[in-house]
Write a structure and sequence with these properties.
The complex is a heterodimer of chains A (507) and B (620). With 507 residues, chain A is mainly α. Chain A is built from 22 helices and 4 strands. The chains are: A mainly alpha (507), B mainly alpha (620).
């Protein structure tokens, strides 16, 4: 590769990534050369970077598929859609960190550039078309997150959380890599599209079991990021130990990146791969496709995740642990369209992640606002919220209604879409929708328990003052939750207009 | 027309403003509410005139489209709902204005105006809906609002019970409507009126299905419009403040039922059985309620039964294919019934008494109110040249030309009874002399002006549709975008003369009995004590319901309560125990040991791989 080919690349397609990278580097330099001054400047710098990257992403919306760097970097609708979610989510997380609360007191500038590098990793996960670059993105996100979780160096819980996260993440990565090695061994390729073509070869069809093993290994390794069963157990401890904005980042941005890599890494190469089951047709015997073979396993994981998340959430008293389990349950819901193998899977997952971003980030913003003096936020901390801060109580009501999937909120539309996607396939997946309904009903218990606290329990605590950043996040997310719930076609037409998700399969 | 959405939004704004600034604006809430509803009325007038000029208007957008499922939302203006908009906003505006005087001393003055705004919003939005989903949503919202307003004096146990009854009884009807909506969606794949009617026309629905859905929709209308046998809530709803009764009876809640049948009229006309059901229910209700009204003693209750009876009239008209007649009577009825209720409110406001036997001789003290009440009574009695005369005549003609002579007879009988009981009421309250200790004062101007406006309309609104010099309303209604069947009415003149005679006869009889008292009041009572008693107890329907349903339900509920305690609760406890046990186990596994976490993840992986190896035939 010489200089001239390097210059010919359409580098503009990587503009958002470049901006995030440059911002992160600049912040680290500023942090290095300035003394312990106010970190306000750094936040604004990081926010400006994220904002600028979002603007460039919007400018790219009309571009077609661009593939550069030897087909390793790929900008298609899928990448744009998921990067958009991650950028918006990170923007909200940064806003939460506007320094006014004391819970980020001993955090240095690294907090800001680590969030940005984590975001960069996530964006690479959405936009890579090669096993190597995908893995590098995954590791960049993971390593940054490990440090973010333990960023309060002197805090016992934070240290424990970071340690658990690291160990579990290591195991997950090992399993994923092991699975990837099979794929490489069978296809001889690292490029996803090359693997897709190689799946038709005789070697692969002679080793159908191995390819199914490989698929399941990669999948189970990757569900660590989305905290689905059986790789969910780290989530409550880590969510509890980390700073609330970091928790929000893990539960929203990191999870979005996890779904991005699951969809791309598992749908693209394996879409035409042969499975294990035999299909007998009048023309003779053939093999079903791999995605059909593995469907029961994905379905079982989805159902288990929904049930485990919701049932254990019933017994939680700590607000962050409660929302950790609730976010496990939501990961289960999002796995349903994947398990149903509906052709709508990309739209449905993206839309639900959008709704989830709004309502979950909002809920964590509320927890962040309620956090006082390092004391744990429990369910009882919400007592009398309507008297202490009507604004928080009303916005939290909107988020909870949305999380519970009540009509006229974004969460309802998201759940409804998942529902329709499971019923829109032949045969209809009634058991998946049944699991989802059951989970939703269980979730009413703990979501509505918070209503009781907020509206009917007295409290002698003082009114809560909230920072400008939290106010902004709460206002935007609550408004968007309602607007999307009442006018869902705004978001749905946006998807149809700008995102041709099926592009993801085209070479 | 593009701004038609403002009409429901204005009252909604009034509701929201009053809701959020309630402690601050307090007494000014009346002015806020009145201004906003006045603006909505002006808007409705503009819409009406622009419809006369530009014709129908429909704007729709997709609310949600997933796969094959598409739900639309929209706004529609056609002759029927343009007319309804004007009626609803006008009556609402006048009621707002009137309430500023009537409710002046109430502690929850601002809340009251807030509810009125919400009520007006729901009804206007219902009227503008072009699909069943929206109709159902606002239909329920109208029900909620009437619950709030009927139970406005919630500290009175009767009011609380009445609100509950209104809500529950209408809910019974709503179930019918909801089932009909599901059936129609299942059969036609759309909830838009347009789509449903064209599917029905194209024969996509079996005749049995059309009949079934039409009757189920009618069940919803029976509940809302207080038709027999779901009429029991309407008289009890008198416990609400009187302006609310005016609003409920003239323009909103009960009109919604008739409106619904009128909207779905193309579906009804496709089924003779459904039409017959509507006509018979209407005719029976008309006579039934009129006979009860003969012997009631509460001024508002008499009016309530007259509403039921008049709504029965409208249903009768619809059932005999008299679309125009029904809509016409809905219009004139809105004006004179609102007038009557407001005038009754004025009497109650002045005399603090609702029993007509304890009232009397008020004609001299309340000259204005007496005159206005007289106009209202003449209109409802169908006295020649008053509005009720024309619309009632249209209904009689429609029943006659449809060939249903029994129903025609019932309608004639009702016309006579109506004239009689209304003037019994009028003479008992206003004529004669009576000594009083307290001073009776005429109501303030904010209350009289709305009544005067209504009185003018009660006199003249009949001229919008007569066979003498122009069937303007009928011609205009025919520009509807839907395949409504307009039957040509060809009725002999003697019907009009007969109706006038019956009306005047009823008035005269009342005059002789109650004003001049030349016929003893109890000349009939003496010979027909039992009948009187049955009528006074409203045919014992409430008692019947109490015995059959409430007592029956008690008996049933004992059974179910045991069933519930031992079987359901046992099951629920078991499920709850299971869930909480599972939760406990889950929490226990969540030990905080990172080794456990890894072990769980690993075992999960191993399990999945073993299963696929076994099922996939790897070991074979």
């Amino acid at each position: 590769m010489n200089m001239s080919t390097l210059m010919q690349y359409n580098w503009g397609s990587m503009m958002p990534e470049f901006i995030i990278l440059i911002t992160a580097v600049t912040i680290s330099l500023i942090d290095l050369f300035t003394t312990k001054k106010s970190r306000t400047m750094l936040v604004w710098f990081a926010l400006a970077g994220v904002g600028l990257a979002t603007i460039f992403l919007f400018l790219q919306l009309d571009d077609g598929v661009v593939s550069i760097l030897g087909e390793t970097f790929r900008l298609d609708s899928f990448a744009k859609a998921f990067k958009l979610l991650m950028l918006i989510g990170t923007g909200f997380v940064l806003l939460l960190g506007l320094p006014s609360k004391d819970d980020l007191k001993d955090v240095k500038g690294e907090y800001y550039y680590l969030i940005l590098t984590a975001l960069l990793g996530g964006m690479m996960m959405a936009s890579s078309a090669d096993l190597i670059t995908l893995f590098v993105g995954l590791e960049l996100l993971s390593l940054s997150s490990y440090i973010l979780v333990g960023i309060r160096k002197t805090n016992h819980f934070a240290n424990e959380a970071a340690f658990k996260y690291l160990v579990n993440g290591g195991i997950a990565t090992a399993i994923t890599l092991f699975g990837m090695s099979y794929v490489y061994g069978l296809s001889g390729e690292t490029n996803l599209y090359a693997i897709q073509s190689a799946m038709a070869s005789d070697i692969v069809s002679d080793n159908r079991f191995l390819i199914v093993f490989a698929f399941l290994m990669i999948f189970i390794g990757l569900i660590f990021k989305i905290a689905a069963a059986p790789f969910h157990m780290w989530a409550p401890d880590v969510y509890q130990g980390a700073e609330t904005p970091v928790t929000a980042f893990l539960s929203v941005v990191s999870k979005t990146a996890g779904f991005a890599i699951i969809l791309r890494l598992l749908m693209v190469p394996f879409v035409f791969a042969p499975g294990t089951g035999k299909v007998i047709t009048p023309e003779g015997m053939s093999f079903e496709s791999l995605l059909v073979s593995v469907r029961p396993y994905i379905a079982i994981i989805a159902i288990l995740t929904i049930i485990i998340g919701n049932i254990i959430a019933l017994r939680q008293l700590n607000a962050k642990r409660l929302f950790a389990y609730s976010s496990i349950a939501h990961a289960g819901y999002i796995l349903i369209p994947f398990a149903a193998l509906s052709e709508m899977v990309f739209e449905v997952v993206w839309f639900y992640l959008l709704a989830y971003l709004l309502m979950n980030l909002g809920a964590f913003a509320v927890i962040h606002a309620v956090t006082k003096e390092r004391e744990d936020v429990t369910i009882a901390s919400f007592a009398g919220m309507f008297r202490r801060s009507p604004f928080i109580a009303i916005t939290m009501t909107i988020f909870l209604l949305s999380l519970a999937g009540i009509p006229f909120t974004a969460g309802f539309i998201g759940k409804f879409e998942i529902f329709m996607s499971a019923l829109g396939t032949e045969p209809k997946r009634y058991f998946l929708t049944a699991a989802m309904l059951l989970g939703t009903v269980l979730s009413y218990v703990y979501y509505f328990g918070l209503f009781v606290q907020m509206y009917f329990r007295p409290s002698d605590k003082k009114p809560i003052t909230i920072s400008a950043g939290v106010t902004a996040v709460l206002t935007i997310t609550a408004t968007a939750t309602l607007v999307i719930g009442i006018f869902p076609s705004t978001a749905l037409t946006f998807i149809q207009e700008y995102f041709q998700f099926m592009e993801v399969f085209n070479q | 027309m593009d701004y038609v959405w403002l009409i429901p939004v204005l009252p909604l704004l009034s509701f929201l403003i009053i809701l959020f600034t309630r402690p601050v604006i307090y007494k000014k809430a009346g002015i806020v509410g009145t201004l906003f509803s006045g603006a909505a009325f002006v808007g409705a007038l503009i819409v009406l005139f622009s419809h006369l000029e530009n014709g129908n208007f429909l704007v729709e957008g997709n609310w949600l489209s997933i796969h094959a499922l598409t739900l639309t939302v929209g706004l529609e203006v056609n002759p029927l709902n343009a007319l309804m908009l004007v009626i609803v906003t006008l009556v609402s505006f006048l009621v707002h204005m009137y309430s500023m005087g009537y409710m002046a001393d109430d502690e929850r003055f601002a809340t009251f105006f807030g509810y009125l705004g919400l009520f007006t919003f729901s009804m206007t939005a219902l009227v503008l809906s072009p699909n069943l989903l929206q109709i159902y949503f606002f239909w329920e919202l109208v029900g909620v609002c009437s619950f709030l307003l009927v139970g406005f004096y919630f500290y009175k146990p009767e009011a609380k019970a009445a609100a509950k009854k209104a809500f529950i009884v209408t809910r019974i009807g709503d179930v019918g409507l909801l089932v009909a909506i599901f059936l129609l969606y299942w059969q036609t794949g759309t909830l838009e009126l347009d789509g449903i009617f064209s599917a029905a026309e194209a024969g996509e629905l079996t005749p049995a299905m059309i009949t079934l859905t039409a009757i189920l929709i009618f069940v919803g209308a029976v509940g809302k419009s207080g038709q027999f046998p779901l009429h029991t809530w309407l008289p009890d709803a008198m416990e609400g403040p009187t302006p609310v009764s005016a609003l409920i009876h003239a323009a909103t809640m009960v009109a919604a039922g008739v409106y619904l049948v009128a909207v779905m009229f193309p579906l009804f006309t496709a089924s003779d059985v459904a039409m017959m059901t509507v006509a018979i229910t209407g005719g029976v209700t008309a006579v039934f309620a009129a006979t009860i009204a003969l012997v009631q003693n509460d001024i508002k209750r008499i009016l309530a039964y007259s509403t039921i009876s008049q709504l029965g009239y409208m249903m009768l008209a619809l059932g005999t294919a008299g679309y125009t007649a029904a809509v016409f009577h809905l219009t004139t009825h809105a004006f004179f019934k609102a007038l009557l209720f407001l005038a009754a409110g004025s009497v109650i406001h002045a005399a603090h008494e609702q029993n007509i036997h304890k009232l009397g001789g008020l004609g001299k003290k309340l000259k204005g109110t007496a005159l206005l009440f007289l106009i209202g009574s003449l209109a409802i009695a169908g006295f020649p040249l008053f509005s009720g005369f024309f619309s009632k005549d249209e209904i009689l003609a429609s029943a006659f030309s449809n060939g249903s002579y029994i129903l025609f007879g019932l309608a004639l009988l009702t016309a006579f009874l109506t004239a009689f009981y209304m003037f019994r009421l009028y003479f008992l309250v206003f004529s004669g002399e009576r000594e009083r200790n307290e001073e009776i004062k005429e109501s303030p101007r904010t209350m009289l002006i709305p009544m005067m406006v209504l009185a003018v309309l009660a006199v003249f609104s009949g001229f919008i549709h007569t066979h003498w010099f122009g069937t303007f309303l009928g011609d205009w209604l025919e520009t509807t975008p839907y395949p409504v069947l307009f039957s040509s009415i060809d009725a002999p003149y003697w019907i009009m003369i007969l109706a006038s005679a019956l009306s005047i006869g009823g008035i005269a009889l009342a005059w002789f009995m109650y004003a001049k008292q030349s016929i003893p009041r109890n000349w009939l009572y003496g010979s027909m004590k039992e009948v009187h008693h049955v009528l006074y107890r409203k045919y014992y329907v409430d008692e019947l319901y109490r015995t059959v349903f409430v007592k029956g339900l008690y008996a049933l509920s004992y059974f179910w309560s045991y069933f519930d305690r031992f079987i359901v609760e046992g099951g629920a406890t078991a499920v709850k125990g299971l869930v909480s046990q599972l939760g406990k186990t889950g929490v226990k596994v969540q030990s905080g040991q990172v080794q456990t976490y890894s072990a769980v993840a690993f075992s999960g992986l191993v399990l999945v791989l073993l299963v696929i190896a076994a099922l996939g035939g790897y070991f074979q």
